[in-house]
From TrEMBL:
<protein>
    <submittedName>
        <fullName>VOC family protein</fullName>
    </submittedName>
</protein>
<dbReference type="InterPro" id="IPR004360">
    <property type="entry name" value="Glyas_Fos-R_dOase_dom"/>
</dbReference>
<dbReference type="InterPro" id="IPR029068">
    <property type="entry name" value="Glyas_Bleomycin-R_OHBP_Dase"/>
</dbReference>
<dbReference type="InterPro" id="IPR037523">
    <property type="entry name" value="VOC_core"/>
</dbReference>
<keyword id="KW-0479">Metal-binding</keyword>
<dbReference type="Pfam" id="PF00903">
    <property type="entry name" value="Glyoxalase"/>
</dbReference>
<feature type="domain" description="VOC">
    <location>
        <begin position="2"/>
        <end position="121"/>
    </location>
</feature>
<dbReference type="InterPro" id="IPR051785">
    <property type="entry name" value="MMCE/EMCE_epimerase"/>
</dbReference>
Length: 133
């Protein structure tokens, strides 16, 4: 089994796609006006309009209602990303902090309230854990 993607359902796809284009520095692929993808080497971040949730069954997904998942992106320099993203992000949860497990991490919420973690392994053990990933 391979983990392929995570999908965010939103009522405002253009706003969320623009936000993640700025965060990732990538241009989203838009195979349909109601769907976008950020295809990365390790996983894909997909964004679908709430209209697409109807395809999964009534009330199976509610846009902007997630408080249990953290999307994590490994970066080269958390502190530099913090400076770059500070004007863009409206809801900071945690400024750059070194965590007990050896990652330097910062957390913020996207415009729909989804939690995003940008991190970099900084201790020897943390760097070793991420070798080959």
């Amino acid at each position: 089994m391979n983990f392929v993607s995570i999908r965010i359902i939103t009522d405002d796809i253009d706003r969320l796609v623009e936000f993640y284009e700025q965060v990732t520095g990538m241009t989203a692929e838009r195979p349909a006006p109601v769907f976008a993808e950020f295809v990365m080497p390790t996983c894909t971040l997909a964004i679908g309009h709430s209209k697409t949730a109807q395809l999964f069954g009534a009330d199976s997904v509610v846009a902007g209602n997630n408080r249990t998942v953290i999307m994590e992106f490994r970066v080269n320099d958390v502190d530099a990303e913090y400076v770059r993203l500070k004007p863009l992000v409206g809801d900071w949860v945690q400024e750059p902090t070194t965590m007990p497990w050896g990652n330097r991490s910062m957390l913020f919420r996207d415009p729909d309230g989804n939690l995003v973690n940008l991190f970099q392994p900084v201790t020897e053990d943390a760097v070793k854990r991420f070798e080959g990933r």
